[in-house]
Amino acid sequence: IIYIEPLIDLYYEHILNLLEEEKNEILEEILRNILKIILCDVETTVRRSAQKVLQNAEGDTNLMLKRAKGLQSLGKMILQKVN
């Protein structure tokens, strides 16, 4: 049987002994990974929403074109904010 509590204590002790610069590097890496997850979630949500919007035009070409232009504008705004 492996007891995990001593390992956790050892991990926390290791974290406490890290230099501030090392802690900052670890924190930056964690934040980068969180941001990647958030961006992936946003991208997936936008993609699914766009598919539903474009598929649900009920044969109206003008409506579909307006929706496509709206999505294009939304995409441009998102890209401007990201860059």
Model description:
It contains 3 helices and no strands. It has 83 residues and is mainly alpha-helical. It has one domain (4-82). Helix 2 packs antiparallel against helix 3. The radius of gyration is 23 Å and the shape is elongated. The mean pLDDT is 84. It comes from Plasmodium falciparum (isolate HB3). InterPro entries: DnaJ_X, EMIR.
Topology, please?
Elements: H1 4-17, H2 20-55, H3 61-82
Structural class: mainly alpha
**Strand fraction:** under 5%
Measured distance between first and last alpha carbons: 51 Å
Structural domain count: 1
Largest sheet: none
Q: Concise description?
A:
By secondary structure, the protein is mainly α. The protein has helices at 4-17, 20-55, 61-82.
Keywords:
mainly alpha, elongated, DNAJ-containing protein X-domain domain-containing protein
